[in-house]
Amino acid sequence: MASEEFVTVGDAEIEVVRRGAGRPLLLLPGEDMLEAESAFAAGLAKRFEVIIPSPPGFGRSSRPDWLSEPRDLAYLLLSLMTKLDVQGVPAIGCSLGGWIAAEMAVMDERCFSRLVLIDPYGAKLGGPLERDFVDLWQLAPPKRDALYWRDPEKAKRDISKLDDAALGRIARNLETFARLSWQPYFHNPKLKHLLYRIAAPTLVLWGEQDGIASTDYARGLAKLIPGARVSTIAEAGHYPHLEQSDAVLKQVSEFLGASA
Amino acid sequence: MRAWHFTEMPYPHYPQDEPATRINLPNKHFDPKIGAELYNRYLDEHMIADELGLDLMLNEHHQTPSCIDTCAPLTAAILARQTKNARICVLGNPIGHRNDPIRVAEEMAMVDCISRGRLECGFVRGVPYEVYAANTNPTETGDRLWDGIDLVIRAWQAVDTPFNYEGRFWHRRSINVWPRPLQTPHPQIWVTGSTDKETPKRCGERGWVFANFLLAYDKVKPLFDTYRAHFVEHGLPGGGGCAYMPLVHVADSESEALKGADELRWYLTAPKAEPHFRNPPGYMPVAANVAAMRAAQNANVRNARSASIDDLREQGILVCGTPDNVVKQIKRFYERVGGFDHLLMMDHAGFMDHDRTVKAMTLFAREVYPQIKDLPRTQPLKVARAAAE
């Protein structure tokens, strides 16, 4: 079962895609918006009604001018959950979506029953001269791909098969990602001090070959979230749920099954 | 027509085989002793240009040897004191990258007073790679440019009552700029643009000068047409209009002119930025990025860097030759774009030495300038309509 709708939240129009049937589960996609059509989402859809909102500025969602950081999107997505009547549900946030999910969990201790963060950005743990996240904006796209993917071939898209609207969404996704993460780079300086507020049991999953942030970073992050557990995924980069979907589905199922 | 001397003040003495020179070329390649000589030489040449009756244009870039003028207001302040007659055009203040537009309003007002009203106050969004040096969000620099200009003008004109400002990008308390600029209502505003027609439209409506650098005449004409279609006189000093920057070299003979042109071409070929520095996300509109992705797919991107001297001269991007030949080229460009008001001459670049620079500038001032000075200015709409009726 799949459906698409637009929901008005504040002054934003948010695109919401649903996959499968069962208990609701919120899936917050990464900045490249690859999750909705992935084997990972299809696997989740066998057990859950997977609700995949395009965060404002991504996909077909609108982008009001006042949005400048992931926290702004977190407010709108919390309102979206209220409007869809899906509070206290499990959530999975990937990369930028993980950052947004962490901001939501910090704002509202009851919004998620369980939380899976897959290679999220958002908290800077090191000092001014230490790079928690490699500076992607200083790298040519092929070098970025090599950091995102264990197998960079997976990043390649056949542009000739995409129409201008689809290409426009790719360009705008990147633009919104820059709007939200340019400076401070890939983090909210206050988030690390607020992660203690995350009340939902949390699993941090990390690709062992993530070239943007290391598994050491993952362990440092998890220490700031009460009771959080870290698990690493072999043969995977920054998007382990896309490169090793079976392995990630297994871990996620075990983690979420505990509350089934 | 007014003619302006311009150099980016390059520091060309770095290894020319470096694959990329903007943003990340280590500054160990800058020898301050050579730099000191260059700064003083370039300032001397601005003073010579002043004595020759030319006006002066300044710009700034950051983290690049192609331009070591990193602070145009500083250079403008020196020239405000050391020159006598020239108009001094800062083109421009990268106000979107400055964290404090009120500081810019103060700097420009000071330069206007010290120069006794010779300042032309330009503003630029800044080329794409400047967002890396300034660390400004590339998705916002366009909006910051226009908000910043509005704030500077408001600050200059709020002569009775200090005001508070709480905008999207800046918050200031009790804005009250001392000094005020000398020119009234304030110095002429200039803004640069390349392909977007919104910029010439906004400049025309406000009576500001619209400037374009180094585009071929067929791309310049639609921009200047847009300006003319919206040009309203607002009583600013200098009277608005359009400005164009080509590379310019005048010599006694065609062969010498070609030698000089080849030296100027350094500007087009030597400074290199890696492709992603030329297109940070959000700098170009989505539609332009879609077109760029399609172009990359079709592998038909034209490389302007490899254009020949003849191609550049045909497009109007390069003006070079003997004085009479240069007059012809300028007049041809003038006709092809429907007229313009300011010739911004990049008449120095790269390794061009002092003697050649001054000789070319002198020939221009004595033999070319008198023949183009009286070309008609851009007319505001009501005047143009009255003349047509």
Describe the protein:
The complex is a heterodimer of chains A (260) and B (389). With 260 residues, chain A is of the alpha/beta class. Chain A has a single domain (2-257), classed as Alpha/Beta hydrolase fold, catalytic domain (Rossmann fold), CATH 3.40.50. Chain A is built from nine helices and eight strands. Chain A has an eight-stranded mixed beta sheet with strand order 1-2-4-3-5-6-7-8, with helices on both faces. Chain A is globular. With 389 residues, chain B is α/β, with parallel strands linked by helices. Chain B has one domain (2-388): Luciferase-like domain (TIM Barrel, Alpha-Beta Barrel), CATH 3.20.20.30. Chain B is built from 15 helices and twelve strands. Chain B has helices at residues 32-51, 72-82, 101-114, 130-134, 141-157, 198-206, 217-230, 254-264, 266-269, 275-278, 286-298, 309-315, 323-336, 354-372, 381-388, and strands spanning 2-6, 55-58, 88-93, 119-123, 163-166, 171-175, 189-192, 209-213, 241-245, 247-250, 318-321, 342-346. In chain B, the strands form three sheets. An eight-stranded parallel β-barrel of chain B has the order 1-2-3-4-7-8-9-12, surrounded by five helices. Chain B has a two-stranded antiparallel sheet with strand order 5-6. Chain B is globular and about 60 Å long. Chain A binds chain B through residues 65, 68, 137-141, 159-160, 164, 167-168, 170-172, 174-179, 182-183, and chain B through 23-24, 132, 135-140, 168, 274-276, 280-282, 286-287, 289-290, 293-294, 297.
